[in-house]
Q: What sequence folds into this?
């Protein structure tokens, strides 16, 4: 009798231990990287949630002026990604990371004193440039400092922690918006400046890296753009990041215009996304540590996006609770696609770039997702929403083709020589005490 009760209890305990292990990173460097990610995300999450009101209420800008500034900032980030990655190669990812965080803190501290559109444009563009450099430096440092078999898992823990931080930041923004005073908004950006200073302190305490051995004839910082096999992979992988656009933009528009579901379900689906990423990102990253495994993960992500495109339009023909069930099923498919595709992208950036040019290559890899952000919002909205529903099926075909193409593209890129005389990307480094 006692034994029959003990078995389920032990099974439940094992399940709980596994769940905790997939959320809480192991002690050591992986946990340190995850903690800094969470702290950093509190600041970025707070600003993402409260920036629109801050720009209009605290700075007195019009929506058109805010839109212009954000568009110019996106353009600056796009143009600067590869050169900024080159700076990471030249000066080291940790140094660039710390300097950019300190610049971020100074820029946020200066935000309340911005006068007029010109000052706003200067700050928002500078923040976009430092943000792009920070993203590249953080990823390159994670790749360089960890053993090959740890890299993708560590990035998964960081992403899980980022989502926790984003959630905390969003909650704080709710308090700021509830107070709704000029000083509350000024306090918000000053608090964000402090968060970035604290993050810089975390990064400074991380282990230092040695200099990477460079070839006798260094490549131009833009030479990566002529590496066609790699750029083909970057483009295909970047197109798969359309899951972000589908989840945050296109699916909500579909729900509002083509279903009888209550508007509140949109917020519920965003919460579902956050929870599932926190709980399952690490588990979904397994098997993507090498280039073939990362390619297969990317292909699975593409198939899941295509499945989402087939399931979602069903909600336009259902009613009541069945509509909600279809939307939750479609959203779950897209979240799984996001979990698996993200792991694939991390595996590709960890294995394909040469060590001495890793910053430039990681920066160039991000161009694929930048292209997606330029074409996907308008293109997928036109296909999925404006057609009334039939356009979802060509969209599914597009993602299926991307999935079919990415594995042979990765195979070709892996076999193409990059830099002669440079250590392979998978080589680990010895930390400087």
A:
């Amino acid at each position: 009798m006692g034994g029959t009760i003990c078995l389920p209890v032990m099974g439940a305990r094992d399940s709980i231990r596994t769940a905790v292990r997939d959320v809480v990173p192991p002690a050591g460097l992986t946990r340190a990287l995850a903690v800094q990610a969470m702290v950093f995300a509190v600041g970025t999450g707070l600003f993402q949630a409260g920036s629109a009101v801050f720009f209009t209420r605290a700075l007195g800008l019009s929506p058109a002026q805010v839109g212009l500034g954000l568009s110019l900032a996106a353009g600056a980030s796009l143009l600067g990604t590869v050169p900024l990655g080159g700076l990471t190669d030249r000066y080291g990812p940790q140094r660039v990371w710390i300097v950019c965080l300190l610049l971020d803190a100074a820029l946020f501290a200066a935000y309340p004193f911005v006068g007029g559109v010109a000052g706003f444009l200067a700050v928002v563009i500078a923040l976009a440039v430092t943000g792009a450099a920070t993203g590249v430096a953080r990823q390159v440092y994670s790749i360089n400092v960890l053993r090959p078999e740890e890299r993708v898992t560590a990035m998964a823990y960081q992403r899980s922690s980022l989502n926790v931080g984003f959630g905390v930041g969003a909650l704080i923004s709710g308090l700021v918006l509830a107070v709704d005073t000029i000083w509350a908004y000024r306090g918000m950006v000053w608090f964000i400046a402090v968060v970035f200073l604290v993050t810089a302190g975390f990064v400074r305490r991380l282990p230092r890296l040695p200099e990477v051995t460079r070839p006798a004839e260094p490549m131009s910082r833009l030479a990566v753009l002529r590496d066609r096999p790699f750029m083909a992979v970057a483009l295909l992988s970047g197109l798969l990041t359309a899951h972000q656009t589908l989840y945050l933009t296109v699916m909500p528009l579909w729900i509002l215009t083509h279903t009888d579901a209550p508007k509140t379900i949109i917020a519920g689906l965003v919460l579902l996304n956050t929870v599932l990423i926190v709980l399952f990102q690490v588990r979904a990253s397994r098997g993507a540590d090498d280039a073939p495994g990362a390619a297969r993960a990317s292909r699975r992500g593409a198939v899941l996006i295509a499945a989402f495109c087939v399931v979602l339009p069903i909600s336009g023909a259902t009613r009541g609770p069945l509509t909600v069930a279809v939307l939750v099923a479609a959203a779950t498919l897209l979240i799984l696609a996001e979990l698996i595709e993200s792991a694939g992208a991390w595996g590709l950036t960890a294995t394909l770039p040469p060590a001495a040019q890793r910053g430039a290559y990681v920066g160039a890899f991000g161009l694929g997702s930048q292209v997606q952000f330029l074409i996907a919002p308008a293109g997928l909205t036109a296909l999925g929403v404006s057609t009334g529903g039939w356009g979802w099926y060509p969209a599914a075909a597009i993602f299926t083709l991307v999935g079919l193409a990415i594995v042979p593209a990765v195979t070709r890129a892996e076999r193409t020589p990059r830099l002669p005389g440079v250590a392979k990307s998978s080589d680990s480094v010895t930390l400087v005490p």
In short: DSSP finds 14 helices and no strands in the chain.
